[in-house]
Amino acid sequence: MVSRIIPVEQFDLIIFGGTGDLARRKILPGLFKRFADGQVPEGSRIIGAARSEMDQAAFLTFAEEAVRDAEGDKIDATVLKDFLAILDYVAIDALGEEGWSALAEKMREGPVRAFYFSVGPSLFDDLARRLQQYDLVKPDTRIVVEKPFGHDLETARALNKVLSAHFDESQIYRIDHYLGKETVQNLMAVRFGNMLFEPLWNSQYIDHVQITVAETVGVGGRGGYYDKSGAMRDMVQNHLMQLLCLTAMEPPAKFDPDAVRDEKLKVIRALEPVEPHQIVRGQYDKTDSESNFRDDVENPSSKTESFVALKCHVGNWRWAGTPFYLRTGKRLEARDSEIIVVFKSTPHSIFGSDAGGGHNELRIQLQPDEGITLKVTIKEPGPGGMRLMDVPLDMSFAETLGEHADTPDAYERLIMDVIRGNQTLFMRDDEVEAAWAWTDPIIQGWEAVHDVPKPYDSYSQGPTDATLLMQRDGREWREIGA
Ligand code: NAP
After folding, report:
1. Peptide bond just before 455 cis, omega within 30 deg
2. Are strands 206-214 and 336-343 parallel, antiparallel or unpaired?
3. Where is the signal peptide (predicted)?
């Protein structure tokens, strides 16, 4: 297989929040892996920046531990040493003047310059203003911002306003790490690289689409944040919406940032409002050994949802009449994320109505393993008449691609795309706002009636009402973890 990796230019990447959890778990290990794969050009530098007073050696120790935690024993000591040699640190306060001159002195003309805002959004304005004040922003400087991008439409607009006051939209990279997943891009390859699917990709042939992002973890240490957010804001408004967009969008004219994002935006804008009876909210309950949601967020009267299932419609010619069912939750039976495109049954069975089969499904699995399966109908082997069965045509990446299946983590890919200046996999300002404009009325509706989420057993399939949401339509969810 010939490598078609697009090379990156030499860069200076400054990570504000360089000592934080995201830097430790994702950004630094991701950069190490790209470095080990030879994708970080010589002379590139990664500079951690946070308030903590630490010298360069202390930051290197932090980074080394981060890489070791992520990579385990398989690290090549020489590669790690070379990687640490490109790291630096500057103690800086986003809210004060401390450290900014020191950072300015470290900057070089020439390399690509990117600032990763791995800090809470309340610091974006101060960071942006000081970057300008210290003349650190060049026309091609890139700014990376993390989720959550706003709490609702109003706060998302305010954040966009803050960023656009200091940077051009072409410089802003809003991360939704689901877009960095290999299989999500494979969804586009499958849809737009094959003739096979496009003629069938519409309401005439597709019965419905299911999108599930199920987690086994509870809210963990993020209780305070999560209690103010909930599954709708934390998962549906961004990750599930992006998966829906890539499944439903029209073919863009080319695979370029604005062509792709224009088509995704059209999908969001075509989403019809969701009626209350088309949504189920849930909150995980106790098991013998585990706490319930309200214990975890330390709020005994919390009405925040840890689970959402909903049915929605994309109101356009392609999708009129084909529902999209979205479902996400914490403390569910398995960690299982997938998009399932369920085709309609054959209009007439020449083998008789009780012969079985006839259920085609395209399943795009994102977690725990990545892969694509197409369910087709064949004859049940053996004598005894014409009995049919549905079997998967499997494309598990690990098996099919062998050594080439070592796909980069989403963060690795996205950071390298920032350096390449490719915004295709990042959300645009209007896209984020349109997504909030659709989710806001749903959340406001709950708040208006003081809606109480339905309890569900930890490590289950979610509330019974979610099952009924599908059953009422004569359909059923694929079992989580099956
Ligand atoms: P975190 O662990 O709390 O780290 C925050 C970082 O910001 C620390 O390095 C902190 O270092 C620095 N910081 C705080 N105040 C500062 C200031 N005034 N000036 C300069 N630096 C300051 O948070 P995190 O989990 O890494 O998350 C960072 C951002 O990514 C948040 O917006 C979060 O919502 C988002 N995010 C995180 C994850 C994740 O898995 N962790 C996933 C998705 C999105 P000092 O205290 O030393 O200043």
Report:
1. no
2. antiparallel
3. none
To the query of whether residue 166 is one of the catalytic residues in this protein, the response is no
Residue 419 within a domain: no
Spatial separation of the C-alpha atoms in residues 481 and 362, rounded to whole Å? 17
Whether 83 and 141 share a structural domain: yes
Instruction: Give CA 136 to chain center in angstroms.
Output: 30
The reply, when asked if residue 177 is annotated as ligand binding, is yes
CA distance 414 to 8: 12
Q: Say whether both 16 and 94 belong to one domain.
A: yes
SS3 259: helix
- Blockwise average pLDDT, block size 10, the chain, 482 residues: 71 97 96 95 97 95 96 91 97 96 95 97 96 95 95 97 97 95 88 93 98 95 93 97 97 95 98 96 86 94 97 98 98 96 92 86 90 89 85 72 69 95 96 98 96 96 97 97 90
User: Is the CB of 94 inside a 6 Å radius of any atom of ligand 1?
Assistant: yes
Residue 242 CA to residue 178 CA, distance in Å, equals 8
Are residue 256 and residue 315 in the same domain, yes or no?
yes
Q: How far apart are CA 348 and CA 358, in angstroms?
A: 10
Q: Are residues 347 and 461 in the same domain?
A: yes
Q: Is the peptide bond before 368 cis (omega within 30 degrees of 0)?
A: yes
Asked if the structure places residue 416 within a domain, the reply is: no
For residues 375 and 226, state if they share a domain.
yes
21 Cβ closer than 6 Å to some ligand 1 atom: yes
3-state secondary structure of 305: coil
Are residue 66 and residue 141 in the same domain, yes or no? yes
84 DSSP β-pair partners: none
234 is in an annotated binding site: yes
The token pair that represents 204 in the structure block: 């005439």
Residue 449 lies inside a defined structural domain of this protein? no
Q: Are residues 142 and 224 in the same domain?
A: no
Residues 61-90 have pLDDT tens digits of 999 999 999 998 889 999 999 999 999 999
Q: Residue 236 belongs to what domain range?
A: 179-404+456-471
Is residue 442 within 8 Å of residue 230, measured between CB atoms? no
Contact 350, 325 (CB under 8 A): no
Total tally of structural domains belonging to the chain: 2
- Domain harbouring 372, CATH code: 3.30.360.10
What residue's CA is closest to ligand 1, atom 30? 118
Would you state the structure tokens that stand for residue 42, as one six-digit string?
């010589």
